[in-house]
Design brief:
The protein is mainly α and 181 residues long. It is built from 8 helices and no strands. This is Membrane transporter.
Length: 181
C-alpha cells in the first residue's frame, strides 16, 4: 500500500501543491501532472529491458534493487522538495515533486515482478488482488496519509514499506502456485 500511495499523492496532492503553493492555474497544474504520467511508460520499458539483461544479480536481488530505486529515490526527491523555496520559476520545485512518480516505474521490476514470480500461472488472480489493494489505497489514501503521517513524514512511509518488501521478497513460486489445476 505504501507504494500505491505514491500514485495517490500524484493524483491528489501534487495538483494542490502546484495550485496552492506555486500559484499555478488549474490548467497548468493538470498539464504538469501529465508529464510524469506520460514519462512512466518509457521508463518502465527501459527498466524492464535492463532487468532482463542484468545477469550478474539474482532475481530477488534485482527486485530489491528496482523497488529500492523507486521507494528510496522517491523519498529522496520528496525530501529534497522540502528544501527548495517554491516560486513560479523554480524548476527544482516542480521536478522534485514529479520525479518520484517517474521513479514509480521501477516497481514494475520490483514488487509487480515478485507477484509473477511467486504466483506463476496464477498471476492474473494475484494481480486482481493487487488492483483491489490499489483501489482501496486510492480510496483511503486521502484519509490514511494524514493519519499515518501527521507530521508530513510521507518519506518514512515509502522507506518503511520498501524495507518490508526487501526483507520478505521471494522469487520462487509458492507451493499453491505449483499445484495442478
Amino acid at each position: 500500500m505504501g507504494t500505491y500511495f505514491v500514485l495517490q499523492f500524484l493524483g491528489t496532492f501534487s495538483p494542490q501543491y502546484f495550485s496552492f503553493v506555486l500559484g499555478y492555474s488549474p490548467t497548468l497544474s493538470g498539464t504538469l501532472i501529465i508529464i510524469p504520467t506520460v514519462a512512466i511508460m518509457p521508463v518502465k520499458l527501459i527498466t524492464g529491458l535492463i532487468s532482463d539483461r542484468l545477469t550478474a544479480i539474482t532475481e530477488v536481488g534485482k527486485m530489491r534493487l528496482f523497488n529500492s530505486i523507486s521507494s528510496f529515490g522517491g523519498a529522496l526527491f520528496f525530501a529534497l522538495a522540502i528544501f527548495v523555496s517554491p516560486s513560479d520559476d523554480s524548476l527544482a520545485a516542480k521536478a522534485f515533486i514529479m520525479v518520484p512518480f517517474v521513479l514509480y516505474a521501477f516497481t514494475s521490476c520490483g514488487f509487480s515482478k515478485s507477484a509473477v514470480m511467486i504466483a506463476r500461472e496464477h498471476s492474473p488472480f494475484v494481480f486482481s488482488l493487487m488492483h483491489i489493494t490499489n483501489m482501496i489505497s486510492m480510496l483511503g489514501a486521502t484519509f490514511f496519509i494524514p493519519l499515518i503521517t501527521p507530521d508530513n513524514t510521507y518519506n518514512q512511509l515509502l522507506v518503511t514499506s520498501n524495507v518490508v518488501f526487501v526483507i520478505f521478497v521471494k522469487a520462487e513460486p509458492e507451493e499453491w502456485a505449483l499445484l495442478e489445476v
